[in-house]
């Protein structure tokens, strides 16, 4: 279908512009602002800013983002329909002191981030992207995002003639080390000999009247040429760069693949697919001008950094970010959010005790934890439980685990089935084999932290955590449509799925 292809193409633009969580948040922010969302800040009061029918977003550390739209019938104590995802992916990060040289090569020290399939990073055309902290001309310190769009790094494999390993193995500290060029070529660019360079370095270390620096400067900790390229990208002088957080990324663009363009070949499908679909699902759910007029809920997305390393950071899902946002929404003045005066209002529209609105909201809210799932692999079918083999382009996968590695339970499945039926979106079910390990998501930690009902799902993919992954092109549209339906109908469906209510 044309709309499905359009969704896939739009995702490709999103992921190609987003090599880091900082860039992913920037890409999400641009989509939200185009749809009329207004920025707010955690450090400011919200009571005078937030209005019924309003659309807002906030960021933390520029690598996590929360966006929400307030139904005109919502008031503190009412439910919030939430979709959560994450912005980070396994990668290699430049070390704080990265300058290295060996055997005539310039090299760059890196450390592993998350659980990557690291052998896939060999023999790829790599570059760097991330955040740079810069001193501006007013004496302040600001951040700039950089993305060098040409290959400057490579991790070369050893020729098979020199080591005929049947199973490829390597040391991550000493052999997962990129080369950035040749020392001789850099000296030639500078018009210097190796003796000149050595004398210059000696002079630098012996000058006693140099200004005190608590740390070595960036150009001493990192290869000066790399710093120059970063400065060019940031449009500043190299001396203005105080520090940076840079990661390596594959410069090969994400693209459609397969005989009929039915597949997506891309980096960072886990988890930028679900991040993108959450943003688009929220925006699309608001496309009708009057859609918020009768909505008693808030529609919210939360895209977190650091899921791949456990989420226990200030901007991770295990932080106070989402609970703090919900608590502040619950504390908004009741006279501004009066809800409906219709006698048919649901019970959660009646607030007897304003001090408990936060807890009431949590008890009626629902979180869809959206993180990619495993497609069945045609070369390893024995790794999958025989009745649970998700297929690409057949819809999002509900993930279930008896040991609560996922947060899904039957009330959640029933509710999502109702949403999917209205959205005309197919769903699939997945459990891991009993003799296999099981990953986890932000779902269990957020459901435990908030007490809100939660379900885990994601689009099926192959090669999860590889530098180059594979997913279904149609599944992008399936997930967007599902999230759109969830946001549109949750305020109505919430009261119909009863578990703890007294009948």
UniProtKB/TrEMBL annotation:
Q: Which EC class heads this enzyme's classification?
A: hydrolase
Any Pfam family:
Peptidase_M18
Quick check: keyword Zinc in the entry? yes
Per its Swiss-Prot or TrEMBL entry, what cofactor is needed? Zn(2+)
Q: Which domain of life is it from?
A: Eukaryota
Keyword annotations of the record: Aminopeptidase, Hydrolase, Metal-binding, Metalloprotease, Protease, Zinc
Q: Does the keyword GTP-binding apply?
A: no
Q: Which GO terms describe its molecular function?
A: metalloaminopeptidase activity; zinc ion binding
Q: Known SUPFAM superfamilies for this protein?
A: Aminopeptidase/glucanase lid domain (SSF101821), Zn-dependent exopeptidases (SSF53187)
The residues forming the signal peptide are none
Enumerate the InterPro entries for this protein.
Peptidase_M18 (IPR001948), Peptidase_M18_dom2 (IPR023358)
GO BP terms, alphabetized: proteolysis
Q: Which reaction does it catalyse?
A: Release of an N-terminal aspartate or glutamate from a peptide, with a preference for aspartate
Q: What do the Gene Ontology cellular component annotations say?
A: fungal-type vacuole
The EC number on file is: 3.4.11.21
Similarity section: Belongs to the peptidase M18 family.
Q: What is this protein called?
A: aspartyl aminopeptidase
């Amino acid at each position: 279908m044309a709309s499905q292809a359009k969704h896939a193409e739009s995702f490709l633009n999103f992921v190609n512009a987003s090599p880091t969580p900082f860039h992913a948040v920037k890409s999400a922010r641009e989509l939200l602002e185009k749809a009329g969302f207004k920025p707010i800040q955690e450090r400011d009061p919200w009571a005078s800013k937030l209005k019924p029918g309003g659309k807002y977003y906030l960021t933390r550390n520029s690598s996590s983002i929360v966006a929400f739209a307030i139904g005109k019938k919502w008031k503190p104590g009412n439910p919030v329909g939430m979709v959560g995802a994450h912005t980070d992916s396994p990668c290699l990060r430049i070390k704080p002191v990265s300058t290295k040289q060996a055997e005539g090569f310039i090299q760059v020290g890196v450390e592993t981030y998350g659980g990557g399939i690291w052998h896939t990073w060999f023999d790829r055309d790599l570059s760097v992207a991330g955040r740079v902290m810069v001193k501006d001309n007013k004496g302040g310190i600001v951040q700039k995002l950089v993305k060098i769009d040409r290959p400057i790094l490579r991790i070369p494999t050893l020729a098979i003639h020199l080591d005929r390993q049947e199973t490829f193995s390597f040391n991550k500290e000493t052999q997962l080390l990129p080369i950035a060029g040749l020392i001789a070529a850099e000296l030639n660019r500078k018009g210097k000999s190796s003796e000149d360079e050595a004398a210059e370095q000696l002079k630098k270390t012996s000058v006693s009247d140099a200004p005190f620096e608590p740390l070595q400067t960036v150009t001493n900790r990192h290869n000066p040429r790399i710093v120059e390229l970063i400065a060019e990208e940031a449009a500043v002088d190299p001396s203005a760069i105080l520090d940076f957080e840079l990661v390596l990324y594959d410069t090969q663009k994400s693209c459609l693949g397969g005989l009929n363009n039915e597949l997506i070949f891309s980096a960072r499908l886990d988890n930028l697919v679900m991040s993108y679909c959450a943003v688009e699902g929220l925006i699309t759910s608001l496309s009708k001008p009057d859609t918020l007029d009768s909505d008693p809920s808030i529609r919210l997305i939360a895209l977190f950094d650091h899921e791949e390393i456990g989420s226990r950071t200030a901007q991770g899902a295990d932080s106070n970010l989402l609970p703090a946002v919900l608590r502040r929404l619950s504390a908004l003045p009741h006279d501004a959010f009066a809800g409906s005066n219709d006698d048919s209002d649901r019970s959660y529209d009646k607030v007897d005790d304003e001090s408990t609105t936060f807890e009431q909201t949590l008890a009626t809210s629902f979180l869809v934890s959206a993180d990619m799932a495993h497609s069945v692999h045609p070369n390893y079918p024995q790794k999958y439980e025989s009745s649970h083999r998700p297929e690409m382009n057949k819809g999002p996968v509900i993930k279930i685990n008896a040991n609560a590695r996922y947060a899904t339970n039957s009330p959640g499945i029933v509710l999502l089935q109702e949403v999917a039926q209205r959205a005309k979106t197919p769903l699939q079910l997945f459990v891991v084999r009993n003799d296999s390990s099981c990953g986890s998501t932000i779902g269990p930690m957020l459901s435990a932290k908030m007490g809100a009902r939660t379900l885990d799902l994601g689009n099926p993919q192959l090669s999860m955590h590889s530098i180059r992954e594979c997913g279904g092109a149609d599944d992008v549209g399936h997930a967007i449509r599902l999230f759109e339906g969830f946001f549109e109908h949750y305020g109505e469906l919430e009261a119909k799925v009863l578990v703890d209510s007294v009948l």
